[in-house]
Amino acid sequence: MSIKKQYLKKKGICKVTFAVPESEGNGARKVHVVGEFNNWSTTATPMKRSRKGVFTASLDLQPGQQYQFRYLFDEHRWDNDKEADKSMGTPYPDAFNSVIQI
Fold first, then answer.
1. Strand partners, 101
2. Which of 30, 49, 67, 75 is the most buried (most CB within 10 A)?
3. Dihedral angle over CA of 64, 56, 48, 76, nearest 10
């Protein structure tokens, strides 16, 4: 999994591209990126699958913020991004969210 940040100074935003390679999708047919930036909606940000099997989604996020997020595979399996800026505990026992700092 990976995260690419592209700061667009003229627009005052950061274009963030989230990517999940097919090898880490474990045969998933659908992947969504779910987090604070979309009010934890499990349907708002579907990732598109490329011909090479990589799932990607891009979002415009505000600089100076941090956002918790996770990936949702086939509407039932959650996973974190090991390349996130950091992780943060949740109210659930032994559960963590990925965090991206913009």
1. 66
2. 67
3. -80
CATH architecture of 2-101: Sandwich (2.60)
Segment-wise mean pLDDT, segments of 10 residues, the chain, 102 residues: 91 95 86 97 96 94 96 95 94 91 96
CB neighbourhood size of 1 (10 A): 17
Token reading at 98:
């990925």
3-class DSSP state for residue 96?
strand
Tell me how far CA of residue 1 lies from CA of 10, 23, 64, in angstroms: 28, 9, 23
Task: Provide the pLDDT for residue 3.
Answer: 95
Taking the domains of the chain in order of start, what are their residue ranges?
2-101
